[in-house]
Design brief:
The protein is built from 8 helices and 3 strands; from the N terminus they run αααααβββααα. The protein is mainly alpha-helical. The structure holds manganese (II) ion.
């Protein structure tokens, strides 16, 4: 059933992240889990005002979840946005943080390794399903964690990157070893260029207002 929201293409080939994340995991995660959120969202918003909104706006408008239907829309819209953001948070290009992002990581965490440790800790200690995030608020970086479909974005906070810590993200490759999955992904696949782009996005309105 066609709808306003689409399954965006992955930014790399399905086997590009192997062996850190196998093609089998990406295939299930993208074609089954992510796609199911898109299809369910399209059914739920059909004939509602949400059908004409950009995805980010749907997430924010339903974050308060006034009734069961709104909560369902939030869960599915949130998961579509989170997965789009997660895929782009991963890369195989291996570039380290540079420029302003590197400066902020030094200032706010004392270095990339310390930031990675905090992200791993956030991912490990998120009880049940959820997400670990690097965010910026007024240029200050912070590590956050959210349960289920929630995100800092839904509360208006600028996100730089995220790691999916739902079991479906790692179970085929790491079984129950979430800490090992986090160590491997954080050590090998983080897209710091994407994080830098997102950091730049936050400073735009600040400059415009000055
Ligand atoms: Mn997922």
């Amino acid at each position: 059933m066609p709808g306003p929201f689409t399954l965006k293409p992955l930014p790399w080939a399905e086997d590009a992240l192997a062996p850190t994340i196998s093609a089998r995991t990406i295939s299930f995660h993208y074609h089954k889990h992510h796609n199911a959120y898109v299809e369910t969202l399209n059914k739920l918003v059909s004939g509602t005002r949400y059908a004409d909104m950009p995805l980010e706006q749907v997430v924010r408008a339903t974050a308060a979840g006034k009734d069961a239907k709104e909560k369902q829309i939030f869960n599915n819209a949130g998961q579509v946005w989170n997965h789009d953001f997660f895929w782009r948070s991963l890369t195989t290009n291996g570039a380290a943080p540079s420029g302003k992002l590197q400066d902020r990581i030094e200032r706010d965490f004392g270095g990339t390794q310390k930031l990675l440790e905090q992200l791993a800790e956030a991912g490990k200690t998120q009880f049940g399903s959820g997400w670990a995030w690097l965010c910026s608020q007024g240029g200050k970086l912070s590590v956050e964690k959210t349960p289920n479909a929630e995100s800092p974005m839904s509360k208006g906070i600028n996100c730089l990157l995220t790691i999916d810590v739902w079991e479906h993200a790692y179970y085929l490759d790491y079984q129950n070893a979430r800490p090992k999955y986090l160590e491997e992904v954080l050590g090998k696949l983080i897209n710091w260029e994407f994080a830098a782009e997102n950091l730049g996005r936050e400073s735009e309105p600040v400059r415009a207002a000055a």
